[in-house]
Structures are given as structure tokens and as C-alpha cells.
Amino acid sequence: MHELVRRLYPLCRSITGDGVRRTLEIVSEYLPLDTYEVPTGTEVFDWTVPREWNISDAYIASEGRRVVDFQASNLHVVGYSTPVAATMSLAELRGHLHTLPEQPSLIPYRTSYYAENWGFCLTQETLDGMPDGEYEVRIDSTLDDGHLTYAEHVVPGQVTDEVIVSCHTCHPSLANDNLAGIAVAVALARSLENPFYTYRFLFMPGTIGAITWLARNADRIEKVKHGLVLACAGDAGHLTYKKSRRGDAEIDRVLAYVLREREHEIVEFSPYGYDERQFCSPGFNLGVGSLSRTPYARYPEYHTSGDNPDFVLPEKLADTLSACQQAFSVLDRDRRYVNLSPYGEPQLGKRGLYDALGGRSDAKQAQLAMLWVLNLSDGEHSLLDIAERSGLPFDTIADAARALHDAALLKE
Amino acid sequence: MHELVRRLYPLCRSITGDGVRRTLEIVSEYLPLDTYEVPTGTEVFDWTVPREWNISDAYIASEGRRVVDFQASNLHVVGYSTPVAATMSLAELRGHLHTLPEQPSLIPYRTSYYAENWGFCLTQETLDGMPDGEYEVRIDSTLDDGHLTYAEHVVPGQVTDEVIVSCHTCHPSLANDNLAGIAVAVALARSLENPFYTYRFLFMPGTIGAITWLARNADRIEKVKHGLVLACAGDAGHLTYKKSRRGDAEIDRVLAYVLREREHEIVEFSPYGYDERQFCSPGFNLGVGSLSRTPYARYPEYHTSGDNPDFVLPEKLADTLSACQQAFSVLDRDRRYVNLSPYGEPQLGKRGLYDALGGRSDAKQAQLAMLWVLNLSDGEHSLLDIAERSGLPFDTIADAARALHDAALLKE
Amino acid sequence: MHELVRRLYPLCRSITGDGVRRTLEIVSEYLPLDTYEVPTGTEVFDWTVPREWNISDAYIASEGRRVVDFQASNLHVVGYSTPVAATMSLAELRGHLHTLPEQPSLIPYRTSYYAENWGFCLTQETLDGMPDGEYEVRIDSTLDDGHLTYAEHVVPGQVTDEVIVSCHTCHPSLANDNLAGIAVAVALARSLENPFYTYRFLFMPGTIGAITWLARNADRIEKVKHGLVLACAGDAGHLTYKKSRRGDAEIDRVLAYVLREREHEIVEFSPYGYDERQFCSPGFNLGVGSLSRTPYARYPEYHTSGDNPDFVLPEKLADTLSACQQAFSVLDRDRRYVNLSPYGEPQLGKRGLYDALGGRSDAKQAQLAMLWVLNLSDGEHSLLDIAERSGLPFDTIADAARALHDAALLKE
Lengths: 412, 412, 412
Known about the structure:
The structure is a homotrimer.
Chain A: H1 2-8, H2 18-30, E1 34-39, E2 43-44, E3 47-48, E4 52-62, E5 65-69, E6 84-89, H3 90-94, E7 97-98, E8 120-121, H4 124-128, E9 134-144, E10 147-155, E11 162-168, H5 175-191, E12 198-204, H6 208-216, E13 224-230, E14 239-242, H7 250-259, E15 264-267, H8 276-279, E16 288-292, H9 314-333, E17 336-339, H10 365-376, E18 378-382, H11 383-390, H12 394-406, E19 410-411
Helix pairs in contact in A: 1-5, 5-9, 7-9, 10-12, 11-12
């Protein structure tokens, strides 16, 4: 996963353009992708797919020397900057310069997607070293009709009900946000084997990408039963799960169940963050939560040049992946059963499911699990409910349910 | 407000009679009132309007000297005492005397509205100083067919749904209970400007007055959406809100929201106290709570001559008024909206409601408020719900809702 | 009660057989019983009534001397052991011997009802003292078609709705588990006088007995409104109430209410324990909880020869009985009323139910109770609800309700 982060890091991504396309090409070396191109001007709910932005070079130069150079870091240019070729005084230029005075050695990340503008981001230290005088300012960018590009990878399941896993692809040289999410999504997709649900992995630009996908997949939404947005998935912090808008969706309960074995934090839904904002808008209100390590804007390197590949730790990527795998393993096996012998306990002994010797007080966990599953399988309680209420591990409960199902004592 | 308390203090009020009329006349110097007279004998639900009681003088005298004198304090006579003109021994008189042995320098407050009787209230110290012997006992009172008197002041709103504010007018020389409530109600009514709801202020005797009003306004009850009973509104203690019987009425949530910025206490409903007992009887079960400072019977001066105008502090009257104003300001603006663009977020930027420059992590509170309002405006959540869930100030949420409503993104 | 425990202790009970019959005969000296005999082979839900087991003698002897002797303790023989008459080496015998290595001086209790087998239980100390060599092994038992025996005692109530009280009768020489339960049930049944509900006391073997009763009384189940399983009712520990599967059944609330005056513990339902397992199976889901002192398997003497009559304390039996009596006293009087004068408060004074003298702050508890009952009697709240919400004693609330009912202010 960390290798993928490093390979994708230098590309200049935005919400459209060749940086995104090249990113998806590299991802597709690891995971087959279906890539979609949506033309500029397409109406998607309240929004319109914008013009496509591409950039080849940009700089601020003084006496022929590049003081700020897009080739050194693509963060130097405000995303969606219009082309510029001009000479101007520092005073005139200042209105187009963005720095972080509190973090003087870091370059900020800024965009201006929907208001035509141009600008440069640089360190405060660089700005402080720029003498008054004339500067050559150049941005070789294009903003033309084109396409918005996103991709999907589908792991077919036993049922057509879907779990979506989404990560954004629109950030340029920022590693934790969100190349780490892309890397975990790729590894997660590769690790799923014959799942129950159909899993759909979505690689798309933030906000406009999710809105575009939702608008183009309106007839599929009712199939989406659960989902997870991956973001900031590789920093040194512990895992943080942000609940869906519903707050008690099955995905919320599964993540809470899986994370309780780890240091973690669970936060309530808020309509700010990543694409859970769209999936959880009131018209959809999907059971989609978001898994991060340190959430956006809560680490100083957020949206700065400090969010580089060294900020992402391989073992933390692995931990995020593992939590996702555990969560989907529970989600995939969670069912509601109905006890077919609900009047008193059925006689487990005659089916070989119960110890013949009575009187011992150390009833085995597997037997307890069967009694719990039988008692609560009234169509109201899921296996996760039963695991939580009994205090027994989900795996034990799921195994008990399988044994009882095989013995024709349960039906779904 | 404190001036009004002082002016009203000397009057001998009861559940009927000229003391109430004179009280309402003085109040009407500050606030126009509609005064109603309900004849003795009128059936009001399970009750009957009683005879009207008036009193001009009363005393216990020994050797021509008044030992207990109604002119010194109207608390000296048990409310609704029948006329007496007799001479009797102290032993005979004792059965008609009420003192507070634990608070020997205070006169208690006693009434006997519905059982014909007479009596005097005096300090234990006075009683202890009364030698055996003959006493002249005189009560110049009348108990005849007449009227029960109450008054209303209505502040018309944009809608005919009503908020009622009620205070009792039946206590004689007791200041906190309830001249303070009358004073706050008057100031509150004067301060309301073009409210959303119609506000109806009720000045009426306790219990029988509220029951009479309810019986005579049966067809208006369904318009009463919220209400507040004001009592004990000026002592040095902190504010105490007693919830409506429902416990989760909007008025309950509004008061809890407003009071959390102050030292305060919230107590559950109980069917004892002031006229919330009637408004919250099971046949009505209105969303009416009660706001006090120190609740009835929890301060030693309660129902004694210690509850005098000095016991009421001007700054505490002002604080109670301010809390009421804040509460009604929230209540008046609280609405449920429906997001008209519920599929994904609407594009706020194109409507000038969102920062053009992306990437910054310090999204402004006003923008967050708009996202919260959009996300939760599904017809289920009120603005107060949204304020509580988002942690943002109600004012910010209400402003965001107005901006979104103006931009045609919300409807009520 | 303790005398009954001592009398029943020596009998060799099992899920069928003459030990149960003799037990019920002795119980019937204290409490009239209707005894039922259900033939071997009867289908009861998923189970079949097993063959009847009886035993007259059993031992392991070496050189003519009994090393393990059923006459000394009936725990020595595994319940439902098939007949044996053989000589075998200790090595061969070991597979049929059960000890408690951690509690070397105690005999364990073991059964093998549904898998044909035989075995002996003995102390680890005895086993350690048995030299290698040949042993004479004999079990004089019969396992033939016969009957399962259970009994009922019914205390007729004013209504045919029933409360069931159940205890198991299948354990041999074990005192707390469950002769203590039998003893408390007998005393409880004897103490009920003209109850509101019909109380049905059930004395039957665990699991198969309860399942048999349920199968044979299918048409009566809908009459069973509440129930209590008594088990481990006499040890030194404090009372423990295990909730019904519903968790908020009236019996659960009543027990919680009654026990809060005592040191106690309340535990959630689990599908392991005594016959609440059957009553609370999902097909029935009855409001049946279980009252114990120290719950099964939580005391070291559980299912060992340490659970003898000395382990049961007379004062603890009395305490369990008292808690049951209090609980049923509350349950029996708990009702939902409707206030017939719900618009405002009715005038209690004219009915002699309220102090004539007003103004005092120490309103009597009885008057408060009437106000609470009137306020909450909307058909939704039971007297227990009102007692809990008001904080007033249930007795006071029930008395107030009776007075109001007598005054025609309430109907059921």
C-alpha cells in the first residue's frame, strides 16, 4: 500500500484532468477498474460538471530564476487557476499568494473550482525572502470543455445488495488525504473472496464526483445497503469512525463492535467532511459512515505540504485495512434468523449439538451460543444483536447459527 | 418591576373580591387588560365559582388595644374568614389562631376557601405575649354572591397558535409569591414586538381561576401550543424550570436550551405547585411548564410575612425576565423546514452562500450552519434540534435557515 | 420451610420416578396438590417424555467392602444410569467415574438423561484412596416405560388471569438447588389470601417438565400474565432477580421496585438457568423472571454434596419468602385507571378528600398521592408507574387510588 502512495504522490490531481486519469491508470495496475468520463456541462442534481482543468507548468520568477516552481511541488498552484503570463510588482502579486504564517515552512493547499481565479501557494519563508520588485508570473493551464473522470471496481457477491467503499481522487500531492484511502481501498478490494454482498469500490473526485455518481446511479441507490468512506487512512493516530446520519445503521454498529478491541474514537455524524456528506444527504440518507485515523483538519499537516508520504506509516495502513476486513467479515455474516422450534428449547442433544452429560456448570461457549441464537431468533434480532447482548464473540454466534441452520432449526 | 411589586404588596387579594380588582387596575396602568367577571355559582368543570369575599377590617383586641390588627398586615386574617363579632377567652380563641412555632417572628398565610370558618394568623411571639383573659374578636368581612375576576392581555402574532403566560393574583401581601411573577409577566408582555405566535397573558386566581379560564375557553385550548406559568420569580435563588407533564414538550426543550448558559435547575413535572397543575391535567396535557427561582415551599419565607418586597431583588426580576425573553425568542423562531434540494448538497457557491476558495480548514460557522440545516431539514428536525445536534448557537442556525429559505432551498 | 428442606433432602429425585412422587407426597402434607402423570413416549413439542428411571441400590465394592455407596449419598450415581452388575479393573472403571479435582472432598452431581450410560460420582479423595485392582460394580436401576410426574397447586383469584410460580423437583440430594425453592413456593402459596390474580404453583422436573407442562397447557398460556421461577432460594447471599426475556415486563418492574429496599442484584435475561428458559423461549416470551439468592453456578457448592441442608439458612428462606410476598402484593394491586374528571383537578375538598385549610406547605402524602393518581390516570400509567414517578410508596398510591375509586373519580 505504501508503494502505491509513493507512486501516486507526484501526480497533479484535481477534480478533473489528466492527473486523475493517470492516477486511475496506475491504480488499475493493481485492481481492474471501469473508468467513466462525464462531459463538461452535464447536469447532476443541483450542480453542473465543470470544465476540465489541466496544467503543464507554472512559476513565479525573478531575474530569470524561479522563486516558486510548480515542478517542485504541484501544491504551489491554486487548483483550477486560469492561465497567466504577466509581469507584475510584488504588491500586485500579493493578492494571489497564499501562505500559512503560523506554519512558515509549509505550503498550503488551495483551490478555486467554481470562481475563475488564479493564485500561488508558497511557504511564508519563501514569501518573506522575496524582495520588492517586478516578477514574471506564468501559469500554463487550460480550462476547457472536457470530462470528469471516475472509476469503479465491483466484487460480485451472492446477492445484488451492495456495500459501497468510496475514496476521493482529487487531491494533488497530499498523501494521507487521500492517497492512503486509495491504497487501503485497493488492498481491501483485492482481499475480498466470494463475499455475501456485492462490494462496489468508488474512486472519484470529492463532492462533484460523488454527486455525479449519485445522479448517474439513481436506480442503483436502493441496492446500496451499507457503505464506508475511507479518508486519512494512514497517519500515526488511532482509528476514528464517524457514524452515518442515521446513527444506528448496521454499518455503525458493526464498526463500533469491531473497533472496541482497539484504541479508537467514534464520533457522531456531521455534514462536513468527505463524501459521506453526499451519501448521507437527506434525500438519500444511506447507511454510510466514514473511517479515518486522525480526522481531517485535526492534524497540523492537513492540507499542507507536510502531508507527504513520510506522514503515512505502512503499519497504520495495514491496521486500517485490517479493521475494514474485520468489519466487512461481520457485516457479511450478519443475518436475522427465525427459530423454527420456538416453543420451549428444541432438544439439541438428539441432534448431537449438546453435551450428553448434564450437571456440569461450565457449559461450553458453543452451546451457550446456540441457546442465545435460538432464544433471540425471532426475526427481530440479528446475529450482531445476539453477539452484543450475549457478550459472546460474533464468530462464535455466527458458527452457532450455521450449525443450527444446518440442523434445520433456523431459517433466514 | 420592583416598583410594581411594592405598589401591589399592601392590597388584600384573595381568589375573589375587590383586592383582585384593584390589583388588575394597577396592572392596567402598565399593560392594557381585558378583565372578566364570572358570577358566583357558575359551574366550571368539577367546581363552582364560590361566593365573593371582601373584608374591611379585623382585629383581636384586649382592653381596647388591638393585639392583632388586619390594618398592620392582611396576612393576619385567614382568607375567606366569615364575619365575627364576639368576646371570648383565649382558650376559646386558640382554636382559631395559627402561628409558626419554628419561625416565631413570622405571620403565616392561611386560607379556608371552601369550608366556612374564620381565623387569625399571628406570630408565635405575639401569641406568647397574650395573657389569659377575655378578647374582643372582630372580622368585618362579607361572603356574598358576586364574581370571580381575572384578566387577559393578548399580543397578536403572525399566527393564531398561542403561547400562554400565566400568573396567579390571589395571594395577599406576599411578594415573591406571586407579585414577582405578575411583574415579570407585565414586563415580558410589554417587550414582545411583532411575535410569530400569539401570546396570551393570564392574570387570575390560582386553581379556581385557571379552572374557570379553561372551562370558559374550551374552544381555544387547541390553539394553545406552549405555555409558561410564572411563580416565585424574584428571590435570590437561581432559576428553576419545572417541565410540563409531557416532559419533552417544545417549551421544555427551549427552556433547557436557554437555561444551560446559567446556573439553574430543571425538575420533573409533579401535580403540585401552581396552575401547571390544571394546564397539565390529563384531559388537557398542554405543553406548559413553570419557571421559578426558588420553587414554592423551598424557602423559609414561603407563605409567611417574610415574603415581603425586600425578599424580591430587582436584578433577579431582570434575570427572570431575560430568561423568558430568550426562551420566547427561540420558541418564536423554531421551525421545521424541508430541504428542497435533498439529493446531495446543493451548490451554495453559485448562490453566493459559500466561500469560493477551497482547501481551508476553518470553514466559517455560518457555512457549517447551512450544511447542518440542509442536512437535517427533512421535516423531522426543528431548528432547535439542529442547534442541539450541531452544537452551534440557535441564532446562527436560525440565520442560516433564513438565508437558505431566501435562496429557495428550504420550505416550511 | 427449613424442616421441609430437611425432610425432602434424602430422597433420590430425578426427572421421573418414585423419588419425585414421594417428594410430591410430602409436599402435599403442607399444600394440597393436583398431581399429573404423563406417559413415556408422549410427544411434547420437540421432545419426547423419556422412560422412567428408578433405582434401589448401587455401589462400588472392593473385597466385599463398599467404597462408593448409593445408600450414603444418592449423588454417587449418575442420574439415569443404566443397570450394571460387573467386575472390572480400576482402569476400566475410571471412564465411568466423575470427581471434582479442585474440590477434592465434594461429590459432584451428574446426569445422563438422554444418552444411555452409567457412572458414579465420588470425591477426589475417595478416588485417590482406591488402589488398582478389581472392583465389583453394581447399579440396581430400572429404565422402563412409565411416567413423568408433576404437580400443581392453584390459588383462585378474582380474575382468571394467572401468575405462575415454578420450581424444579428433579434434583436429588441438593438443598439450595432446589429444595429451598420448593419450600419457599409452598410457604408462599399458603400465605396468599383472596388474591386478585389466580396463582398457579408448578412443581415439576427441570426442562422436560416445563416443556411438558407448556405442551399440555397450550390453551392456558394466554392467561399467564406474569410468572416467577424460584431457584437457589436459601443460601447466605443476597437476592438476585433475573429479568424476563422482555426485560420490561411488569414482573421485572415489580421485582426491581420491591428489591430496591434490600441489598440485591438485577441481571439481564440469558437463555441459560432454570425453567425461565422455556417460559421465555421466543414462541412464548412470557413475562416470567427468576428469583434466586446466589445464582446457579456462582457458589462453589453448586451441584455438589456441599449443597446440603446446612447450606440453606432459615432466615434467608424467610427473606426470600418476604420478597415474594411483597412483590405479589404490589403486582396484585397494580392497575391502570382512567380519571373520570380529567379537565383540571376535581374538587377533592367537597368529597372530604382534601384539607380544608389552605396555605400550608406540608401537604400530606395522602393528598399528594391523590393528585399524582389523578394526574397520571390516563389509561397509560399503572399505579406502579405512578409510584415510581412520584417517589411515593406504592401502598400510599394504591390507597389513594382506592379512595378516588370509591369517590367515583376513577374507573379501571
